[in-house]
Amino acid sequence: MTPETRTYAPTERRRRQIISATIQALAESGYASLTFSRIRDVGELSSTRLISYHFDSKERLMEAVVMQVVSDAGEVMRPAMDAASDFRGKLAAYIRSNLDYLAANPASAIAVTEIVRGSGRPRDGDDVSVMLLSILLSQGQHAGEFGEFEPEVMARSIRATIDEFAYRRTLEPADATEEIDEIVAIYDRAAHRAEEGRS
């Protein structure tokens, strides 16, 4: 292990600790009440200077929180999608695993929702998410599994539904199994309903 490696590991652990505390603070008190002092107290950190050492602004910290949640969700979604044998299955896995992650991690869902609402700007990575989902939908069309529709429009609709689900987790933290099943079924039908009208 090199000196650089020894330094990197504790730094990353500390950054993750700060991000986790920020997620919890956002879930408990919301974006408007978020301060470095609040994060320090929630995370039982030694000082606010520790936070500003790793993140030089609140905006940078918010970006790191969003990217961490996206990364954590990806760790759940990728294996589910890889296990599907066709594009129809991959689409269902994409939606279900994303919603399952949000349902199982309500604090993360609340945190990202608070950041988007509080900052008044789109979440970083939204365009990339839409682009990647559009590619999946387009590949499914070329494979003959999906019908005729505009992939980007469908992708944005799916992403909007997922974001709305995340927001409602802040208001209705009840079991979401039936709702997730219905959302998956709706988009499965939407992708294939268009196919019935193809000539």
From TrEMBL:
InterPro entries: Homeodomain-like_sf, HTH-type_TetR-like_transc_reg, Tet_transcr_reg_TetR-rel_C_sf
Signal peptide coordinates: none
SUPFAM superfamilies from the UniProt entry: Homeodomain-like, Tetracyclin repressor-like, C-terminal domain
Record carries keyword DNA-binding: yes
Domain of life of the source: Bacteria
Keywords: DNA-binding
Segments traversing the membrane: none
A GO molecular-function annotation: DNA-binding transcription factor activity
PANTHER family for the chain: HTH-TYPE TRANSCRIPTIONAL REGULATOR RUTR
Name this protein carries in UniProt: HTH-type transcriptional regulator BetI
Organism expressing this protein natively: Microbacterium hydrocarbonoxydans
Annotated gene: betI_1
